[in-house]
Specification:
With 347 residues, the protein is an alpha+beta fold. The protein contains six helices and 15 strands. The strands form three sheets. Strands 1, 3, 4, 6, 9 and 12 form a six-stranded antiparallel β-sheet that branches. A hairpin with a 2-residue loop joins strand 14 and strand 15.
Length: 347
């Protein structure tokens, strides 16, 4: 087990001020625990946030190899001091890979993360690291090729916590009591070679009776290996289905219906004397239910995700792609050059 500690690592408060926001945050250390105090403030930045970034090394190219660990244990309390509620929060493992990361652009460091609901003052919770996913909006924004689109844990340079979706304006308190990584899995080949060596040694040293004993040991080891394999499969099968409800759809990376309302409101308020002109294209994937019924919902999710990535890769910065629900998406273009008439296309 590897446990993070402020004595060995550097803890920094984070907030939305780098994106033009007004939120504030600060860190104190109380009885060996890291306490974040933050205030989310309304500003021109539409998604206020705050959090804690734990830096592994002053050199961002040097991180921790967490690829052999299977579980992260989190004991973190998070509370809205004004309402007394316990909102959701986000957890990220940031990976540096020179194939797509640069030192001077922290946004290029891969986001392996999820959103979860901490158990306030209920002790630690264990989360299988395999449940973390690379966030789709990061893949799209950085034009990541498919060979680097999977989660990576070989060079983690930052561990981060942040306010989750639905965190409104107000004062919050986050207390980080424990962050530990549990591992390592026993590799099947290593276990087999070790037991084989033991069996050969017993054959050389002991008599025929010890040979029979050695066979029993090998049999017990095989059963133990089967048990470990079953445990590994069970851990990987668990899925904490956390969604980003703040401003992007968790599956496709497109905006969701909550954020598009705020976007429309901002456009109307900022349009000035000129009329607001938009082109809106409604997109619906035909025969999608048949795909789900025939190939399973995972295939359907993959199709939705890839379709959204293809559309977003061809859009301008001023355009918006919105997942309205299910297989329905809207494409919104500002300063449109289309004729002002309904347009229907089949793809």
């Amino acid at each position: 087990m590897y446990t993070l500690s402020p004595d060995r690592l550097s803890y920094f408060p984070t907030n939305d001020q780098t994106q033009g926001g007004l939120s504030t945050s600060s860190i104190d250390y109380v009885d060996g625990e890291t306490v974040l105090s933050c205030e989310l403030k309304e500003s021109e930045y539409p998604w206020p946030y705050c959090g804690v970034s734990i830096h592994v090394n002053e050199d961002p190219t040097i991180g921790l190899n967490l690829s052999k660990y299977h579980t992260v244990r989190l004991n973190v309390d998070f509370i809205n001091l004004e309402t007394g509620s316990y909102p959701r929060m986000r957890f990220y493992l940031r990976n540096f890979n020179p194939a797509y990361s640069t030192v001077d652009n922290e946004y290029t460091h891969k986001y392996n993360g999820l959103e979860y609901l901490p158990s306030y003052e209920q002790g630690a919770i264990d989360i299988p690291i395999g449940n973390l996913q690379v966030l789709t909006w990061w893949l799209v924004d950085n034009n990541i090729p498919i060979e680097h689109s999977a989660p990576e844990y070989g060079n983690i340079n930052k561990i981060e916590f942040a306010t989750g979706s639905g965190a409104g304006i107000g004062h919050y308190k986050m207390v980080i009591k424990e962050v530990s990584f549990i591992g390592q899995y026993v590799e099947g080949e290593e276990l087999f070679l070790t037991l084989l060596f033991m069996w050969i040694f017993l054959v050389v040293v002991w008599s025929g009776s010890e040979i029979r004993r050695g066979r029993r040991v090998v049999k017990q080891a095989e059963l133990r290996q089967e048990h470990l394999t079953f445990i590994n499969r069970s851990l990987r099968a668990q899925n904490f289905q956390f969604a980003e409800l703040a401003h992007r759809d968790a599956l496709t990376g497109a905006m969701n219906r909550h954020s598009i309302r705020d976007w429309f409101k901002a456009q109307v308020e900022n349009k000035g004397p000129d009329p607001l002109e938009l082109s809106i294209i409604y997109m619906d994937i035909d025969f999608f239910k048949k795909v789900n019924d025939t190939y399973g919902h995972k295939m359907g999710d993959d199709i939705l995700r890839e379709f959204a990535m293809v559309v977003m890769s061809a859009t301008r910065k001023t355009d918006r792609l919105v997942r309205w629900g299910g297989k329905s998406l809207f494409f919104i273009a500002q300063e449109p050059r289309l004729k002002k008439q309904p347009l229907s296309l089949k793809m």
